[in-house]
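Appendix B. Extra example for self-study. Work through it before the problem class; the solution is given directly after the inputs so you can check yourself.
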Amino acid sequence: MTAYIARRLVLLPIVAFGVTLLIFILLQLLSPTMRAALFVTDPRQLQALHEIIKTYQLDAPFYIQYWNWMKAVFTGNWGWSETARMPVLQAIKSFFPNTFELALLSFIPILLVGIWLGTLSAVHRDRIIDHLSRFFGISGYSLPTFIWGLFLLMLFYGHFRWFPPGRLSLEASLYVNSPEFRRFTGLLTVDALLNGEFWIFVDALRHLALPVLTLTVHDTALLVRITRSSMLEVLRQDYVRTARSKGLAEPVVINKHARKNALIPVITLSSLLFVGLLGGVVITETVFEYPGIGRWGAAAALHLDIPAVAGFALFFATLTVFGNLVADILYAYVDPRIRLR
Amino acid sequence: MARNAVAIPERAVPAGVAVGQSYWQIAWRRFKHHRVALLGGAVILLFLLLAIFAPYLTPYSFEQIDLLNRKAPPSLKHLLGTDDLGHDVLTRLLYAGRISLTVGFSAALTSAFFGTLIGGLAGFYGRWLDNVLMRITDIMLSIPDLPVIIILARYMGGSVVGIVFVLTLFAWMGTARLVRGEILKLRNQDFTEAARAMGASDVRILVRHLIPNALAPVIVAATLTVGSAILLEAALSFLGVGIQPPTPSWGNMLQNAQDFIWTAPWLAVWPGAMIFLTVLCFNFLGDGLRDALDPRLKV
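Solution. Structure tokens for the complete assembly:
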């Protein structure tokens, strides 16, 4: 097990190095004056543009610039984001909790419904429930986020006025930003409950409902497909037949014997799915004007706010690399055959 | 299965000659039973024909505007209504299909080509080349695509070629991994040894013997890529950096319709439905092809 994880850990810096190198190659498309924003923590510094170009050697050969940029990145200077009007690291820190909350609230129903429906579908293969869930699987998977999100917005905000876009209503956000409201976790729903302000909790949930519903459909559909095919494969195996022929009750065979093994790929994928959720919120957050890291990333890219996009890419590349690592470790943990190889 | 062998009397076949159908015939027979996939393929074919014959199907041109007849609801004159500038929506929908399908097919073809090339080289030569190429694949998979694609798409200026280039850049990795896996399996088999013993060069072994045997996953992956490329182009257009108007694409029609979603909701419905249907059909088709070509494939 240790050797397995060690081997995985060796790959980590290689991939991380490659990611930074690739992002930096992309940045070379820009002029030195545009790259200057990468090293600034306050927009006023940009007035002394030539000095920044000189200090950070922005007209020097590629490898020197790369080295300087890496130094800046590792010392916590990720540049100034014009879109957020704050330093990039601070912007990530302030937007990320919103996205994390959105992803977490979507992740739970995705796992529960996906695994439940996938199992159901496999157990009742070729019956009506299987056809229905397969239809949901493929159409939910094909449903573009921006169309589905727009449709939900038209129906539940435009028509019924139930679920507004944005993060909080005006009164709630005034209260949340006042000193009376203490922030414990950064997750608004949790903080609202810890503060004992139930109306803020409800308000936050009302704003979260539509984005959560939008995100849930696509990934639940994906999970249904994965669980179903994995479950079908397991149900064919001899040990399941043995369990049945021993006279075990069908629920025991399905839930205890078959599902445990069928969940191996699901568990492995779940960490990647979560990271994918965090990074895949760009469109959803834009549609619902939800102030998370994805909407910031999209706005930054549209306004050519280069330090923000570079920071966004770095941040999510790191998350993805760690997500992969967690997936590998989970895989080795639940499947001893991997460990012993 | 035995039914197929019946056609040939057993004695007529010399010993040692394999009877039956080729791999592709078997795959086609399995595919024919996949009704949903057939339906998907038929709808795609219909959309392709509609796009190709667009100029003959509508009396309007896609740039023709009618300022007296803006945001008109569906009528006999304009079957799907008109948009905010008085374009005939049906006409633009047909022409947008040309652009969106072209983008989808081109991106799928180029990424299948590069994916096969990179996966083939990595699997065939192994060692350091495999390491380098697969780490590049990992790296590309770790980069969050959307913001980076948005920036690149802006640099490409919204041309079809530019968008296809950007989409390809982020779409070849899956194919590369699949092809590498297949080549690794095939590389040490007897027929490869035989070809080598007969003096075939590396290029010949790779192009004539290994890659044709690894085509099944490439075809499935490419089919699914058409759908995802159309989706990604639509998402880019939706954000305003995809194909630029006046050239219509389903994505930029939807983006335009977003401004009038309360006053003329039908403007959003048609391009949205076309994107959804097209992606759905490509996924149906891809699923069917996978089941027919190689059911164990994890694409």
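Self-check: Chain B touches chain A through 39 residues (CB under 8 Å). If your reasoning did not lead you there, revisit section 3.
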